[in-house]
Design brief:
The protein has 16 helices and 10 strands. The chain is an alpha/beta fold and 437 residues long. It has 2 domains: 100 residues, no CATH class; 226 residues, CofD-like domains (Rossmann fold). The protein has a 7-stranded parallel sheet, sandwiched between helices. Helix 13 runs parallel beside helix 15. The protein starts with a helix and ends in an 8-residue tail after the last helix. 37% of the residues are buried.
């Protein structure tokens, strides 16, 4: 009786690109050499007892020699392959998800390693959504994260320990982790009480501890990429402790400068951000982030807070220069809803214009925007849906798709967004990129 699961598993093991067949052939060659040695012994025993009835029937002497060779060879090959599959399942079982076929997991792992090189630039709550989506297509992912956060638990650790703010790193590490659900819950847990602990997220304390163990935040972050079985890596845009500043204009045309990333979204109605800056204004870019951008097949900026998550990365001179020099396909993913205090009244073209004021024109080839706009406004009353532009003023190409999450329509659905991005990359490269789950 045929075993469909065994046949499917065997077919996957023999799929090109898994680096399995070469070792299987070497194994078979070793078995063949060993068989020669056994053949000499068996031939000697066979000649000594050829007239015995048991030997006659077991050796199938009533058949011609070539059918006997095919029968014995086929049975041996089947037993050898079956044993290899079962052995691999037994050896890999402690390291794979329960109830799922080992061959399929190995196949997905190998295929992801051959996937496109994708760099995501941003921070905040938007970046984990795009990472969560694209990790189904590739494990060659680099998240370049802003380091300007100075509020909440991250701000406290930054002020008290001199660390880079760990909040955005925590969220993106969880999004790329193999065990995302439990990692996200664990990292997002905030201590409700305790002297010095109250309000701190566990993930922030974990990264602070890793920085202490390894000697630096940079090394702690690299070690966390391995410890958490991350599909890709999370890197800072710079190692400098930068502060984000904003020039804000009120209805009367008066300008005011706001110091601190956490204060910028609290501007309230009647005030508009004109420009944001970093202090110091020329922090050195993190070398690995520059290398990833230059070697990328696709670079994705956003979604996320325009002035406090996306643009701060582009204000690091080396990041902006590498982005402009890269030959990758560059896409900006526009937010679905406006953010109070940052982008009130913005349409898609306004978002792009803000990017160009800070980083220069024609930086992105495409802008991906949501085209399914509900009749009801976003909940809370403070935000609005970001409309498509009545007329494009920039040199970008606008691509639209229904990108909303069904449960939280003001946010992107990771799967829909990733599919739209991979379709763009497929058109750019001329080859289809498949989801591997």
């Amino acid at each position: 009786m045929r075993n469909p699961r065994f046949i499917r598993s065997l077919r996957i093991w023999l799929t090109p690109g898994l680096h399995v067949k070469r070792w299987l052939l070497l194994f078979m060659f070793g078995v063949m050499l060993m068989s020669f040695g056994l053949a000499f012994l068996l031939r000697t025993a066979y000649m000594a007892s050829a007239r015995a009835p048991v030997v006659y029937w077991l050796s199938l002497q009533f058949l011609p020699r070539w059918p006997r060779a095919v029968i014995f060879g086929g049975i041996g090959l089947f037993l050898m392959l079956w044993a290899l599959v079962r052995l691999s399942q037994t050896l890999l079982e402690p390291f794979t998800e329960p109830g799922e076929d080992v061959a399929r997991q190995v196949y997905r792992h190998r295929r992801r390693k051959l996937g496109p090189r994708i760099v995501c630039i941003g921070g905040g709550t938007g970046m984990p959504s795009v990472l969560r989506g694209v990790k189904a297509y590739t494990s060659n992912i680099t998240a370049v994260v802003t380091v300007a956060d100075d509020g909440g638990s991250s701000g406290r650790l930054r002020r008290e320990m001199g660390l880079l703010p760990p909040g955005d790193f925590r969220n993106n590490l969880a999004a790329l982790s193999e065990a995302e659900a439990i990692t996200r819950r664990l990292f997002q847990y905030r201590f409700p009480e305790g002297t010095g602990l109250r309000g701190h997220a566990f993930g922030n304390l974990y990264l602070a501890a890793m920085a202490g163990v390894t000697g630096s935040f940079e090394q702690g972050l690299l070690m966390s990429n391995r410890v958490l079985a991350v599909r890709g890596r999370v890197l800072p845009s710079t190692l400098a402790l930068v502060q984000l500043l904003a020039d804000v204009e009120d209805d009367a045309g008066r300008l005011e400068r706001i110091y601190g990333e956490s204060l910028i979204p609290r501007l309230g109605r009647g005030k508009r951000i004109r420009h944001v800056y970093l202090e110091p204004d020329d922090p050195p870019a993190y070398p690995e982030s520059i290398k990833a951008i230059l070697n990328a097949d696709m670079i994705i900026a956003g979604p996320g807070s325009l002035y406090t998550s996306v643009i701060p990365n582009l204000l690091v001179p080396g990041i902006a220069e590498a982005l402009r020099a890269s030959r990758a396909l560059k896409v900006y993913v526009c937010n679905i809803a406006t953010q109070p205090g940052e982008t009130d009244g913005y349409d898609v073209d306004d978002h792009v214009a803000a990017l160009e004021r800070h980083a220069g024109r024609n930086l992105f080839h495409y802008v991906l925007a949501n085209d399914k706009i509900p009749a009801a406004p976003p909940p809370g009353g403070a935000s609005e849906w970001v409309p498509l532009p009545a007329e494009q003023t920039g040199g970008y190409r606008l691509v639209t798709a229904p990108l909303q999450d069904s449960e939280r329509p003001w946010r992107h659905d990771p799967e829909k967004m990733a599919r739209a991005l991979m379709d763009l990359l497929s058109r750019h490269t001329g080859g289809r990129i498949s989801k591997l789950g």
